[in-house]
Design a protein that fits this description.
Rossmann fold, elongated, alpha/beta, two-stranded antiparallel sheet, 8 helices, 2 domains
């Protein structure tokens, strides 16, 4: 009888120890990572208690077995150690959270020095780049993307646009992606598939950030003619990336303003009122509709939540027309009596830069 009581006491100790561990496991799953070490310690102590209880129960049982086996017939016996210590898994450490966002650091040495031009190959294509003289890697720097015109070279656009020589080149890193087939998507002359140029521009910006500390709130785009159309494509489909765009004598074929993201973005058009290639009031060209500049202006005014009314201000040989009450600016500079050009008076580069820098993300 004493042996049975002792055995029962050992079994009770084992069951109580086992039941004490379960809440610890359940509670540990709900605890935050900040107290995970304390929980693990508690669980380990409980595990040791369970093992001790099992060992105690086994010891009591084995005493009973030794006495009982002496009275059993030959060939018969009771088993030893019937209560293996329960295996309780330790509480796993919580999955690490997202890494803290720290200051920018380069992933590779800068390939182009301050105040110089260069060319960088990335994602199967290449882009020209200008780094401003006062670039400081400790400070985020704006970026301007420049798209060349149809059948024009990237180098020629870089030279005649004079972006480098203007306030743009003083303040910003300028990148000029090379076009495939000397054209851009959105135009009937495009050699690329829909989305192909967009994907490259995104990859290009990420590549620039590998070398230079860029200001993600101030990424802008401009372009001449079909390049102006690509600037509109950037505003339409990459408003999550770009803060604003400015097209010069833009070839705004209808596809450049279709299926746009519903994100406000600053938009400027500089256009000659006597443009015979992409007329100010629109046309049909290459079998595609070229949007009238006022229509494009109106679509961005609606997208940017502008109010009623327009403001007009005189410029040399031109008039600035601005929408009112917009979440992001919408402007047109009408160059009086002018054709399909990139202008120096008024300075297309300086005018667009003043407008764009007032409209960060």
């Amino acid at each position: 009888m004493k042996i049975v009581k002792t055995l029962a006491g050992g079994l009770a100790a084992l069951l109580l120890a086992g039941s004490a561990v379960a809440p610890v496991q359940a509670d540990a799953q709900d605890l935050s990572s900040q107290i995970n070490n304390q929980v693990n310690s508690a669980v380990n102590e409980a595990n040791r208690a369970v093992a001790d209880a099992a060992n105690q129960a086994n010891a009591e049982w084995n005493k009973f077995v030794q006495m009982a086996n002496e009275s059993l017939p030959n060939g018969s016996s009771l088993p030893r150690n019937p209560f293996p210590a329960p295996q309780v898994a330790p509480v796993p450490a919580p999955a690490p959270g997202p890494a803290a966002v720290g200051p920018w650091s380069p992933q590779a040495p800068a390939p182009v020095a301050n105040g110089t031009n260069g060319e960088i190959h990335a994602a199967g294509r290449s882009y020209l780049i200008w780094v401003p003289r006062n670039y400081n890697p400790s400070k985020p720097t704006p970026v301007m993307v420049g798209y060349s015109a149809y059948q024009d070279s990237t180098e020629n656009f870089r030279n005649y646009s004079r972006l480098r020589e203007s306030s743009v080149g003083r303040d910003a890193i300028i990148v000029y992606p090379r076009a495939i087939g000397a054209s851009w998507e959105g135009s009937p002359t495009a050699a690329t598939r829909p989305g192909q140029d967009i994907a490259y521009v995104r990859a290009m910006i990420n590549d620039v950030q590998r070398y230079y500390n860029i200001d993600r709130r101030r990424i802008f785009a401009t372009g001449m003619s079909t390049g102006g159309g690509m600037a509109a494509v950037s505003a339409c489909h990459m408003a999550d990336l770009f803060a604003g765009v400015a097209g010069v004598s833009g070839a705004y074929y209808a596809p450049v303003n279709q299926g746009c993201q519903n994100i406000p973005i600053a938009f400027m058009a500089l256009h000659g009122t006597n443009d015979t290639l992409t007329p100010y009031h629109g046309t049909i060209r290459r079998g595609q509709r070229v949007l009238p500049v006022p229509e494009l202006f109106g679509s961005y005014a609606a997208r940017n939540g502008c109010g009623p009314g327009l403001d007009r201000a005189p410029l040399p040989n031109a008039t600035r027309v601005s929408a009112r009450g917009c979440r992001k600016g919408v402007e047109v500079i009408q160059v009086h009596g002018s054709n399909h050009f990139w202008w120096y008076s008024p300075s297309a580069a300086d005018e667009m830069w003043a407008f764009l820098m007032r409209n960060p993300k």
